[in-house]
Amino acid sequence: MSLRPYLAYAKKIFLNRSAYRFDNVMGIISTCLQFFIFWEIYKALYGTSTDIDGITMPMVTTNFILSMGLGAIFSPDDYFLPSKIWDGSIATEFLRPISFKGRMIAENVGNALFNLLFRFLPCLIIALFTVGVNAPASPAMLALFVLSAVLGFGVLWTISFAVQMTAFWLINIWSLITIKNVLINVLSGSMIPLWFMPRELTAILNFMPFSSVYFTPVQIYLGQLSFEEIMLKCGIQLAWIIVIYLLGDILWRKGQKKLIVQGG
Amino acid sequence: MSFIEVKNVSKTFKVSRRRAGAIGAAANFFVPKFEKKEAVKNISFNIEKGEAVGFIGPNGAGKSTTVKMLSGILHPNSGEIKVGGYIPYKQRKAYVGKIGVVFGQKSQLQWDLPVIDSFELLKAIYSVPDDVYRKNLERFTEMLDMSGFIGQPVRQLSLGQRMRADIVAALLHSPEIVFFDEPTIGVDVVGKETIRAFIRELNRQDGVTMIFTTHDMRDIEKTCRRLIIINEGEKIYDGALSALREMYGTTRRLEVAFSEKVDLPGFENVTVENLENNKKRFTFENNKVQINELMNRILGEYNVRDINISEPDIETIIQKIYTKKEAEI
Ligand SMILES: Nc1ncnc2c1ncn2[C@@H]1O[C@H](COP(=O)(O)OP(=O)(O)OP(=O)(O)O)[C@@H](O)[C@H]1O
Ligand SMILES: [Mg+2]
Prior knowledge:
The structure holds 2 protein chains of 2 kinds.
Chain A: H1 4-18, H2 21-46, E1 51-52, E2 55-56, H3 57-73, H4 80-87, H5 90-93, H6 100-130, H7 139-165, H8 167-170, H9 174-187, H10 199-205, H11 211-221, H12 227-258
Antiparallel strand pairs in A: 1-2
Helix pairs in contact in A: 1-6, 2-3, 2-6, 3-6, 3-11, 7-11, 7-12, 11-12
Chain B: E1 4-17, H1 21-30, E2 33-47, E3 52-56, H2 63-70, E4 78-83, H3 92-96, E5 99-103, H4 115-125, H5 130-143, H6 159-169, E6 177-181, H7 189-204, E7 209-213, H8 217-223, E8 226-231, E9 234-240, H9 241-248, E10 251-258, E11 271-275, E12 279-285, H10 291-301, E13 304-310, H11 314-328
Parallel strand pairs in B: 3-7, 3-8, 5-6, 6-7
Antiparallel strand pairs in B: 1-2, 1-4, 8-9, 10-12, 10-13, 11-12
């Protein structure tokens, strides 16, 4: 198997994205805006107190900039398969002598790379000069943060992948995708840091796939987890990736037999 | 063993029966009704290496569905398909690299990118070696007269230009087998002729095996010797294009311009129509009426200014076959 076709797809999406300059400027503004709104809300909540349950405002700030930044990077195209089934272009996709899943990953990676350079980094720099961001606990933790963030992306991607596969049967899965995204936004800690969730809920959330997407990398970055805990959490992330991927893959195999091509 | 083998293949679609109106829509939601639509019914045929086969039938006959099954996109509900040793829908990834498919109604090009960028992407996807790519690109753009718009984004092309670009896109990796599904749809007369000549050369020169679907019989006449006709999912003809004429094209039309006004006796099995300027038209079946006898009688007994005999064109024959099939059902 050659990687060349997949690199070509990743490159294509990267170039496509760069072509729309206005859209990119607006993208940076909207990511920053979102961050500052949440930041203001929490600043007001903190008022004069230096910490709530041992969580300081700079930690909250860092949580938001990292989880929203990661959120801006990880935006799997949830409509990749559904839109192709909807308009019938899935026919031409299936004519290519390459793995459709591989191509899906390639486009998402190309997209993520673009977002890293043109969403995350600009916003991080703006935040550094305005509100300040905590430095990583240590270089080792920074490396583990990156590892865990990549695994988090894997979790997010496999969830999107599995949900998309239902389009073979349902064709229109807009509502399903919306529910999925609400769950991820609320339960992953990107809106409400999971520190502030009720204890019982956190215990459950710790073993759900969602929390591992953003919250685990953030905790690692801040040095809140011991090495053993990190290994456990990364293990959980990996386990979810495998489980959800296998589930999605069953749907993928069955779905191809069900495939209908809309339009002449 | 033939190069392409299709044996007893059927494909059924599940279509929802929608009831009309608001109440009907509510009923659809709670009690959806499904109906089975047999798009392809028990079709079999074999195609040898290097053959060019026209594949025709009225709208909704099941042509595109068959092409999609042959391309490995759709799974048949029953029956067997084998192309060049592959089972298309089971070995899709390995198989599709060996074939080219043109869907006239669906572009395979990147909407936002210049044509040439789409080609470059395909080169990478199919891992086409540099020299093969350059040779094919040069030859095809020359033959299809594309140099004028190859740098333009696809969304700015006219339909005919886009079609030519789509044809080249399907051939850059030098496939041995090509399925054309209406590659001349919406193309003007000159464009059609260019495409036909191109397809013919591909078949005769390069020995590419092909199936050609179209609604324009002249496409077939110019490119294919063999013809398969399907109607309502069933195969109703499979044989030489010329044999079709012999079987169904038995009607002859004789037009005679007489020097003066004449009164003719009746001829058996011949219908006679009066046209202007002392012209008459004789229509008959050539297996019922001896044409030289009829001509001898006319030429021997009357003064004839001009005479002209014609056989039906292929369109008329096809029309006759389509409607005959419907009459039988
Ligand atoms: N996705 C689908 N869902 C349900 N029915 C379908 C679907 N695709 C095709 N059909 C039905 O299958 C039959 C055959 O369609 P097909 O597209 O193969 O016809 P065709 O011979 O290519 O016609 P045309 O000349 O109009 O292109 C039609 O009756 C059509 O309604
Ligand atoms: Mg069709």
